[in-house]
Structure formats: structure tokens, C-alpha cells
Specification:
The chain is an alpha+beta fold. Helices cover 37% and strands 13% of the residues. It is built from nine helices and eight strands. A four-stranded antiparallel beta sheet has the order 5-6-7-8. Strand 1 and strand 2 form a beta hairpin. Helix 3 packs antiparallel against helix 4 and helix 4 packs antiparallel against helix 5. The model has no long low-confidence stretch (mean pLDDT 90).
Length: 326
């Protein structure tokens, strides 16, 4: 982290203690961690080095990334007074509602295609399940009616009543979006109208079946679709190849707040048991596809130091915490 980019908090004028005005903060994370602060003179003498050849791969630590280091990614630090909120007001959530990120017809067409495919699949699977259940009844092989089967049958019936009409509207909306210039701004009222009809179906769903999370608009699913089709350079997506219509979404995803904090207040962990009394986090890194530090069982990691020592600018000791998702 380039320490020269850390400006004072605008309300209080405070700056993290013990750090030089210019230099770098290096954090090394694996099973354990190490911290190194380089001042301007140290940084002038520093040179890049290759990781040790016997360094374990990140996959051996349970992460989905490849290679033996996490990805490097430029970050512009934004100072603010942290109260532990998930998304600070100074860094608004660019994906809080679909109307914020479905801004042109190209994105609308992509998002509609993803949802249409999900609804078509859910309807087909539901019909297959109901037909199979009827066959069991006809053959006298009906197992006891468990609660989850009752819920599944009720869901299938509800979908059969309400989803085909919406699906037809979505197919028409997809065709309309695909017929427009991809980079042209979308019609806000038309988008709001189709989103309202989608919301009504989502509200009828009792459980998080496949399409429910897509009905309210899922920017991450669109991101995955875009990034998955990009050419790759050294294992990383080449974002220079992003079609112009998708750039507003991709730019918002890359430049928005993704949960990383330096000298912040971390919200309480629901599934961890570490004793963190008297400590504050030095740095917290959320699971991030751009960094390659995603995993199945945790949603980030952080380094905690003694609160009083850190206030005096001593950045050593403490403990490494992986944020357990389950």
C-alpha cells in the first residue's frame, strides 16, 4: 500500500499514527502473516523479487485463486470516520438497486437473458418434479409427504400460475433491449415497470429457489457472465476487451467499495471465536474476485493488533483472523 496516498480523515484531520508520509506498507498473508513498513528511503532502495519457488499455492490455503500469490490490484484509499458500518455513506453502494447499474440497453439485454434462462430452467425442473411425483402416486410408490416436498410442490404450483406470464414479458423486454443501440441510455420508467412485476413474483416465493435472487437484479451474476468471456492474460481477465456497453457496470464493480479496510472498525464476526479483546484491525481484506482470495468457507481475513500499541504506531504482534462464513 502506497503510504503517500493516505490522506487525513477530512472531518478530524487524523492520520494513522506511526506511518511515514511516503513509503509502503507490505502485508504478507498465509497460515500466518508479517508486516513491513518501508519509509521513502527504504522504498528507493527496494526492488521487486520473485516469490520463493517452494512457496505454497493459495489453493493449498483453501482459496480458489491460482498461483502462489494473490493478485495485485491498484486501490485508491478513501479516508472517512469509520463506525463499523458495512457500506459507508462516503462510498455509496453502486449496486443497491438495479436502476443504478442497468443504465443502458446492452446491460439490460444481458441481464434479461440471464433471468429468462433461469426462469425457463426453473419452470422446466418444476414440471419434471410434478410429473415424477404423479408417476409415483400412480404406481403406488409415494414416499411419506415430507415438509420439503410439500413446499416444493406448492412452489411449483405458484410458479405455474404466475411465472409463464412474466416470462413472456421478459422475453419481449429482452427482444426490445437487444433491438436498441447497446450504449444508448435505457428508458427509466420502462425499467421500473418490468422490475415491479418481477418483484411481485419474488415476493410470492417462500424460499430462495434458483431465480429468486435474480428477480431483484443481480449485478454479480452479470459481472460473472462478462468476465467469464473476456480473453485472459497470465490467468487474469483482459478488461481492455470489455464491450463498450458493459463498461459502466464493469467500471462500477472495479472502482466501488468492495469491503477492504485499513485501520477501520470491523463489524462483529458471527461465526468466529477468536479473543479480540483490546485489539483493533490493522487491515481487513474481503473476499474479492479481483484479488483471487475467494474461498468456500470464509468471506475475508484481517490482522488485529493491540489497540494501545497500534495507537502509538507499533505495527507488530497481534493475530491473523479468517472470517468464517459457516
Amino acid at each position: 500500500i502506497d503510504l503517500g496516498t493516505l490522506s487525513p480523515e477530512p472531518t478530524t484531520g487524523a492520520r494513522p499514527p506511526g506511518l511515514p508520509g511516503r513509503g509502503a506498507l507490505l502485508v504478507f498473508i498465509g497460515q500466518h502473516y508479517a508486516i513491513q513498513v518501508l519509509d521513502e528511503a527504504d522504498l528507493a532502495d527496494a526492488a521487486p523479487v520473485e516469490p520463493p519457488r517452494d512457496l505454497a499455492g493459495v489453493a493449498e490455503l483453501g482459496y480458489w485463486g491460482s498461483g502462489n500469490t494473490f493478485e495485485a490490484w491498484a486501490v485508491d484509499p478513501v479516508p472517512y470516520l469509520s463506525r463499523g458500518e458495512q457500506s459507508p455513506e462516503v462510498l455509496p453502494d453502486l449496486f443497491a438497486t438495479p436502476t443504478r447499474w442497468i443504465t443502458n440497453w446492452g446491460i439490460a439485454a444481458l441481464e434479461a437473458q440471464i433471468l429468462v434462462e433461469a426462469l425457463e430452467l426453473e419452470l422446466r425442473l418444476g414440471r419434471e418434479f410434478v410429473a415424477y411425483r404423479k408417476t409415483q402416486v400412480a404406481e403406488g410408490k409415494t414416499p411419506p409427504m415430507a415438509r420439503h416436498i410439500e413446499e416444493r410442490l406448492a412452489h411449483c404450483a405458484m410458479m405455474e400460475d404466475h411465472a409463464p406470464g412474466l416470462l413472456a414479458e421478459l422475453q419481449a423486454w429482452r427482444a426490445k433491449a437487444a433491438a436498441q443501440p447497446p450504449e444508448a441510455p435505457i428508458e427509466p420508467k420502462a425499467l421500473e415497470a418490468i422490475l415491479a412485476r418481477r418483484t411481485r413474483l419474488a415476493e410470492r416465493m417462500q424460499n430462495d429457489y434458483g431465480a429468486r435472487n435474480l428477480l431483484s437484479g443481480n449485478a454479480s451474476r452479470c459481472w460473472d457472465e462478462i468476465a467469464g468471456k473476456l480473453p485472459r492474460i497470465a490467468g487474469r481477465p483482459d478488461f481492455s476487451g470489455v464491450p463498450a456497453a458493459y463498461r459502466p457496470l464493469v467500471n462500477s464493480k472495479i472502482t466501488g467499495w468492495r469491503g477492504h479496510r485499513l485501520f477501520g472498525i470491523e463489524p462483529e464476526f458471527p461465526n468466529n471465536s477468536e479473543d479480540l479483546r483490546g485489539q483493533d484491525p490493522l487491515i481487513s481484506i474481503a473476499s474479492d474476485a479481483l484479488l483471487g482470495n475467494q474461498s468456500e468457507h470464509d468471506y475475508g481475513f484481517s490482522i488485529w493488533l493491540d489497540r494501545d500499541r497500534m495507537a502509538r504506531g507499533t505495527h507488530e504482534g497481534g493475530q491473523f483472523v479468517r472470517h468464517c462464513a459457516v
